[in-house]
Amino acid sequence: YKRVDNNCRIIISELRANKREFAASIHDLEEKKDKLSKSKERINEIKEKILTVESQISNINNSIAVSKDEISIIENELVKLNDLRKEFDLLSLNIRLKSESKIKNKSDHDSLLSEINTLSGNILNEENIVDIKKQIEETNLAIKLKEDYIKEILKRYSEIKSMHKHSENIKERISSIDKCPLCEQVVSAIHKQSIILREEKAMVELLSEIESYLKKEKITENEIEDAKKDIEILRQRERDSEMNKLKSENFKSKRILLEKIASELSIIEKEIHELNNKKADLSLSLDSMKGVEEKFPVLKSNLEKQKDELKNHEIDKARLQQELDSLEFVVASLGK
Q: What is the distance between the alpha carbons of residues 151 and 145, in angstroms, rounded to a whole number?
């Protein structure tokens, strides 16, 4: 009985405690019901807002993807634009160098043409140098023969002079002797006279021959002098011909060089024309891409704005999600 009594007491005590707890729990029941209702309404509002924000985030992400694609395209266009500008600058440099080369070649061409015109007026009719040398050799040979002839003349002149001297001596001796030194006979005046006449005649003939040889010597010396003058003229002709040959070769080489420069000048002019055409085409391409650079910063700025907007929406979503989690926790607590 005592045990039953004790157990009853324990049960009664627990029932009283439960009663107190129940009374306490139902004390603000209406307030909690109102809070639960408002929390559920707020949860629904937040969920709708989260859906709206998620839709906005999705739209912004799509816009960002589009902007990135557009920027990627523009960046490729900018690379092409920079490549075109480099090519344009390189073409401009090439044209400038070609133009400078053209000016130099034109100057060289005009200067060379002037030299050629001067040379063409100074070039004489070409003579055969071999023929001139042959004439010089023949004239030298003729001079040698004449000099040998003069030597013969001088030799003969010396002999005649000796013979003339001998006749004079005979004439002098015969005039001064009365007897023959060999036979010792008396030399008659008639005999002396005949010898004297003979020697005088011989002396006259010798003098005539001397005079003839002297004339021949003079004529031959004049001929040698004239021949030497001819040789000097021939040698001058030879020098002139050699110089003329050099001028002619120089003229030909300058003509070849002139043709080469003229050909190079023509090629350079053609290259400059082609480069200018290409430059004009590049200039049109550059003009058509001017808007690319202006569009790029606008797209970049727009992308940054979209990223900022996305960031703000994601912050809003996180804030709403946090509020939703708190409210769901409260609703769960109130539901118990």
A: 10
- Within its chain, how far is the Cα of 14 from the centroid? 113
Range 74-85 burial, b when 16+ CB lie within 10 A, else e: beebbeebeeee
Residues 270 and 219: their CA atoms lie apart, in Å, by 74
Whole-prediction pTM: 0.45
Dig out the tokens for 110 from the structure.
Answer: 């005009």
pLDDT in tens, 224-235: 888 888 888 878
Cα 275 to Cα 280: distance, rounded to the nearest angstrom:
9
| Residue 3 DSSP SS3 | helix
HSE-CB at 67 with a 13 A cutoff on CA atoms is: 19
Which tens digits make up the pLDDT trace of 101-121? 878 878 877 887 777 777 666
Give the chain's length: 336
User: What three-state secondary structure class fits 125?
Assistant: coil
Encode pLDDT of 49-102 as tens digits.
889 888 998 998 998 899 888 888 888 888 887 887 788 788 888 878 888 887
Q: Quick one: which of 128, 127, 126, 110 has its CA closest to 118?
A: 110
pLDDT confidence bin for 22, thresholds 50/70/90? very low
Question: 83: which strand partners?
Answer: none
User: How many angstroms from the chain centroid is the CA of residue 62?
Assistant: 56
Tokens of 302: 């727009």
Q: Which residues contact 240 (CB under 8 A, 6 or more apart)?
A: 124
Average pLDDT of the residues in 241-270: 78
> What kind and span of H or E run contains 131?
helix 129-176
Query: What is the identity of the amino acid at 69?
Result: D
- The rounded distance, in Å, linking the Cα atoms of 12 and 64 is 71
Beta bridge pairs of residue 186: 179
d(CA 171, CA 193): 9
Give the Cα separation of 118 and 332 in Å (integer): 118
